[in-house]
Design the sequence.
């Protein structure tokens, strides 16, 4: 068994994982089994490093002394001894001596600059906060930073050599040799920065190629199955619905309405209203701009729907042709996904999604190959994330409410339908009012825009999330006022947890020094961010998911307990959030390193307290 080289408590220089930068660290412990040193940085971050990534401080000092030993002053003295026998006059010699002193001061200044500049560049904090490995300043700026470091190192050397060679009397032959050597050195140094770190996706999710291929067919089939089940008198799981005729699934007029809806929302998105904000830094360090006007789009859509109702447009037409609308939306999302993949083949490497660049067609097509596909300033992924599907969900719910009143000859909607519409309307309005928060979600910062998000935003959200309202049209459920009050309280509890947890997190990210947040405790990380260990985030690791699940249950309870079909949403949502939580855990482990492990020890429960 190899003996350890560094003792506990020893101060050494540790290489930052994934980079060529060394920082001063202190050895805290050593793992004899894994042969890893646990080191502590000055900011309190602890990382596990291999012995090959650690060097003694003396080795760095030795390099510095070598560079100083070959100072310009020593080289200038050797040149003075090699002067020609024809000595100048004494006074001129004195002048030359003064000139040499001036040149030595100049060269000394240049040399000091050459020693100082790389240090300043090496330890310049990164401003990129989107992707960090074990607390390291983001790898997205790694290539650019290495180029700057080497250029700063090379530039002072050029200046020193230019000053020295200007007054040198060495032979041209020696100069040519030196130029050749320096040219080789320059070529070697110049090649290194342009080497790019591979951005290929190494860990495939969703079952890899086979899993994503299956999901491309399974997701649309699930949507169609649920809609067909809701139309049956007995929507039991074992009572499979008959397959409809293929010609009944398609209507060009319905497809035209779907296109009209999409482009109407796109027109609202392009309106010059609302503020413009910057997203998180990309791999190139650039920040994209986004216009925050989703709530205004919702108001304009509500006004347009109100005009249609004023002119007695039959909105329950959506209920009668809901399956055709779902098929049309699925066809449009498929066409959009094909366009997105084809255009992504010409996208630069730095614009590809970190999770959708595997090199396999099916996997990249499903997860999304390009991170932020844009047509000019029109961001396709950001637009689809909240606008057509989320606002469409509310319109479909309203259509179900009107259909229930017409089919059952009601003067007012049923109490169950009112609760479902009200709860889900609150959720959508909250999302649009806090639209800016979506810029920090995994969908925007990590996932590409492919079939998964296109189908999810345009089909799954409006047609599956409105399942409870669709179910109540054909299966009316009567509930008492006390039951309705209890369900309302449950939804309010879920909403309070969801909103207060997200607000707590967003406020802390914007301004951790806010006096209002002085009572919050956090674990510092090398990324510059803190991991909250008090408030909702000290209760469970994902309190916003807990609030989401409680609200999902409140949306299903007004449908009663006769069938499990209206509870599909809450069951699916639990599975979705558990899977997303696992993805979050994986990314946070890579991003925060040992700081995340300490956070997990402090907050052991993930979503459900004392359960999971």
Sequence:
């Amino acid at each position: 068994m190899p003996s350890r080289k560094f003792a506990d408590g020893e101060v050494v220089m540790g290489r930052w994982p994934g980079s060529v930068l060394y920082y001063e660290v202190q050895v805290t412990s050593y793992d004899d089994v894994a042969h890893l040193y646990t080191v502590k940085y000055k900011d309190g971050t602890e990382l596990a490093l291999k012995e090959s990534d650690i060097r003694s401080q003396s080795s760095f000092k030795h390099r510095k002394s070598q560079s100083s030993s070959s100072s310009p002053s020593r080289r200038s003295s050797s040149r003075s001894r090699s002067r020609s026998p024809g000595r100048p006059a004494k006074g001129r010699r004195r002048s030359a001596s003064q000139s040499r002193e001036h040149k030595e001061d100049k060269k000394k200044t240049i040399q000091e600059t050459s020693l100082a500049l790389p240090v300043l560049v090496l330890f310049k904090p990164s401003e990129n906060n989107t992707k960090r490995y074990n607390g390291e300043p983001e790898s997205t700026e790694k290539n650019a930073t290495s180029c700057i470091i080497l250029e700063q190192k090379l530039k002072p050397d050029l200046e020193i050599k230019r000053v020295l060679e200007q007054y040198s009397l060495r032979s041209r032959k020696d100069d040519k040799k030196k130029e050749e050597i320096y040219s080789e050195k320059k070529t070697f140094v110049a090649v290194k920065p342009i080497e790019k770190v591979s951005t290929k996706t190494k860990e495939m999710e969703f079952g890899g190629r086979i899993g994503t291929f299956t999901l491309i067919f399974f997701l649309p089939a699930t949507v169609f199955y649920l809609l067909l089940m809701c139309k049956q008198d007995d929507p039991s799981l074992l009572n499979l619905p008959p397959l409809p005729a293929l010609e009944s699934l398609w209507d060009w007029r319905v497809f035209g309405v779907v296109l009209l809806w999409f482009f109407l929302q796109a027109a609202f998105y392009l309106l010059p209203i609302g503020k413009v904000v910057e997203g998180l830094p990309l791999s190139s360090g650039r920040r994209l701009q986004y216009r925050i006007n989703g709530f205004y789009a919702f108001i304009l859509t509500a006004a347009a729907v109100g005009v249609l109702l004023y002119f007695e447009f039959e909105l329950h037409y959506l209920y009668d042709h809901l399956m055709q609308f779902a098929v049309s939306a699925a066809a449009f999302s498929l066409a959009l996904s094909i366009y997105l993949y084809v255009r992504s083949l010409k996208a630069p490497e730095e614009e590809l999604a970190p999770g959708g660049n595997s090199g396999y067609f099916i996997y990249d097509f499903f997860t999304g190959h390009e991170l932020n596909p844009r047509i000019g300033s029109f961001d396709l992924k950001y637009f689809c994330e909240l606008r057509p599907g989320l606002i469409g969900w509310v319109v479909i719910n309203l259509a179900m409410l009107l259909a229930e009143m017409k089919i059952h000859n009601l003067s007012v909607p049923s109490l169950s339908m009112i609760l479902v519409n009200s709860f889900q309307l609150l959720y959508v309005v909250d999302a649009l009012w806090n639209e800016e928060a979506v810029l920090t979600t995994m969908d925007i910062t990590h996932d590409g825009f492919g079939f998964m998000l296109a189908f999810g935003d345009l089909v799954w959200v409006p047609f599956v999330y409105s399942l409870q309202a669709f179910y109540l049209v054909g299966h009316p459920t009567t509930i008492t006022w006390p039951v309705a009050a209890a369900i309302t309280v449950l939804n309010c509890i879920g909403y309070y947890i969801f909103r207060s947890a997200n607000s707590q997190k967003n406020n802390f990210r914007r301004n951790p020094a806010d006096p209002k947040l002085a009572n919050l405790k956090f674990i510092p990380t090398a990324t510059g961010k803190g991991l909250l260990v008090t408030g909702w985030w000290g209760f469970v690791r994902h309190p916003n998911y807990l609030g989401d699940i409680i609200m999902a249950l409140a949306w299903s309870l007004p449908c009663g307990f006769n069938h499990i079909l209206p509870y599909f949403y809450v069951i699916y949502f639990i599975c979705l959030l558990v899977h997303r939580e696992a993805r979050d855990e994986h990314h946070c482990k890579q991003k925060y390193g040992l700081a995340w492990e300490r956070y997990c020890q402090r907050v052991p429960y993930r979503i459900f307290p004392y359960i999971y």
Remarks:
- The longest helix spans residues 90-122.
- The chain has three domains: 10-57, 199-478, 479-611.
- The chain has a mean pLDDT of 77.
